Structure to design on (380 residues):
């Protein structure tokens, strides 16, 4: 039997994780990304225990430990007094409990690590998908804006919340703007002039919050991200700039540690926070969605990328040993296995209550995508 050929659309976290997983499952993978180059966006990312358990199988744990910060805890505090609401302790005790470390990193460093797990010759930049069609023999034809065309056995669309493939399969679904916005940035800790901050803290205000943490093991870079009301703002781009003076004014009554961080930051990005309901279906024939394309979520549980990375592991298990005729059933099994979990995380994140008070996080962090039972499917 010849190798199954799969095109992965999108080379973000989910797309690269999918390529890493499928390559190791014996699948012929090609990744198509519309960007002409990768940009190191100024954003941090929390790499949870559940995501680390997946990436450990690809040999990425050592590099992530070298590049990311190993926090004592995720501490949740009152916005003004600093009183502790719930201190989710990490470190060695949590690593022993969940079987992997919890790390805080720069999104660019995680992306680079995932890219290193994928053969360089399978990644194709400047390939914006503009056409997709399934044939009667179950093959899939793809057309790109640069004029290139290709045919594969199956397609995995990890092309984000504005997924072209999702719109082609299931139509356009308008996002639910929450009337809230977020500011974020990464900046050198040296701008704090020796002022010490907590490892990782979420400061909970009455109608807004800010999360602050280090993203480098030597504490040389600081990241923060906020959520606050601003009705009418609908720019969903991660590259839009915000006014740091407006940000400082919005948090003027927060704890001195928060104000000190905001005074030190030189610039910020700003984007609208949106919410989307779980999709009814993820796949059609030999095409499936993955990650944000099918289960985008608010950032309040820091699990968006982790869900895509888990998806990749489970999908590779479903496709192992499958030929073209078995892809559609494998995709249905993938969806049936993953959807209950991703929907629960998606809807839980929507509430923005994760770790606000004492919480049992085992259902999130204890998940092991390599060993989770695959759903048994009735014959189609």
């Amino acid at each position: 039997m010849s190798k199954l050929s799969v095109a992965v659309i999108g080379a973000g976290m989910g797309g690269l994780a999918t390529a890493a997983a499928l390559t190791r499952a014996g699948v012929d993978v090609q990744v198509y990304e519309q960007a002409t180059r990768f940009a190191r966006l100024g954003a941090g990312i929390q790499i949870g225990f559940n995501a680390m358990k997946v990436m450990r199988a690809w040999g990425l744990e050592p590099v992530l430990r070298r590049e990311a910060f190993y926090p004592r805890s995720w501490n949740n505090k009152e916005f003004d007094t600093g009183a502790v609401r719930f201190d989710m302790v990490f470190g060695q005790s949590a690593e022993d409990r969940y079987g992997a470390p919890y790390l805080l990193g720069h999104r660019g460093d995680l992306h680079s690590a995932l890219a290193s797990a994928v053969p360089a010759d399978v990644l194709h930049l400047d390939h914006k998908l503009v056409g997709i069609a399934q044939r009667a023999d179950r093959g899939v034809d793809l057309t790109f804006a640069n004029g290139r065309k290709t045919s594969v056995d199956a397609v995995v669309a990890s092309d984000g919340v504005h997924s072209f493939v999702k719109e082609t399969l299931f139509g356009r679904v308008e996002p639910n703007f929450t009337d809230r916005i977020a500011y974020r940035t990464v900046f050198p800790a040296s701008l704090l002039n020796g002022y010490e901050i907590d490892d990782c803290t979420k400061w909970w205000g009455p109608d807004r919050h800010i999360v602050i943490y280090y993203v480098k093991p030597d504490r040389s870079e600081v990241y923060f991200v906020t959520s606050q009301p601003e009705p009418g703002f609908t720019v969903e781009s991660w590259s839009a700039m915000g006014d740091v003076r407006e940000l400082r004014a919005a948090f003027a009554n927060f704890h001195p540690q928060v104000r000190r961080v905001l005074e030190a930051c030189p610039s910020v990005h700003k984007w609208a926070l949106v919410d989307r309901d779980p999709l009814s279906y993820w796949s059609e024939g030999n095409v499936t969605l993955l990650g944000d394309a099918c289960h985008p979520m608010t950032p309040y549980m820091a699990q968006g990328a982790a869900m895509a990375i888990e998806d990749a592991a489970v999908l590779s298990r479903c496709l192992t040993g499958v030929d073209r005729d078995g892809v559609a059933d494998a995709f249905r099994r993938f969806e049936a296995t993953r959807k209950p979990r991703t929907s629960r995380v998606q809807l839980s994140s929507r509430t923005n209550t994760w770790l606000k008070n004492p919480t049992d996080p085992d259902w999130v962090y204890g998940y092991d995508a390599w060993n989770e039972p695959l759903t048994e499917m009735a014959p189609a």
About this structure: Residues 327-350 form the longest helix (24 residues). Residues 199 and 217 are 11 Å apart (CA to CA).
